Amino acid sequence: MTITLHSRVEADLQTVSQRFDAHLFRYLLPRGAKLLHFGGSKTGDTVHLELPLAGEWLSEITEDHQSENLNYFIDEGRTLPFPLKTWTHKHSLIRNGQGTTIEDKMTFSTGTIISDVMTYPALLLSFLPRVWLYKRYFRVNSHR
What we know:
Layout: E1 2-9, H1 13-18, H2 22-28, E2 34-38, E3 46-51, E4 55-66, E5 70-79, E6 86-96, E7 99-109, H3 113-127, H4 130-140
Antiparallel strand pairs: 1-7, 2-3, 3-4, 4-5, 5-6, 6-7
């Protein structure tokens, strides 16, 4: 299944790209989650989390790209909490006039379509706050 979210922020593509870092990642984490390691957003980097109740989550960046109008990186789950079996998350930063659109496209599987459908709402509710958190982060931290 796939979840796609869009957030338009009032910061240029270069600024948003430069600030896609451990500070932003901590800001986006749900309450109680811990960032154990943030290696970056380039191919080969890893991100390691400890989630309340769900447990360990380790992702590896498997692809990254930068151009004048689009930057993206893709992370794939290597160690995932139950019930996830697969996880791919493409983070796209798209030039949008003077601002940037951040697209989070997450594809996951639990192994069965029934379980996917049951898991979808929980994942959507976990990631939906990013839409307004991105807006606030880049407004408040535009001169960081």
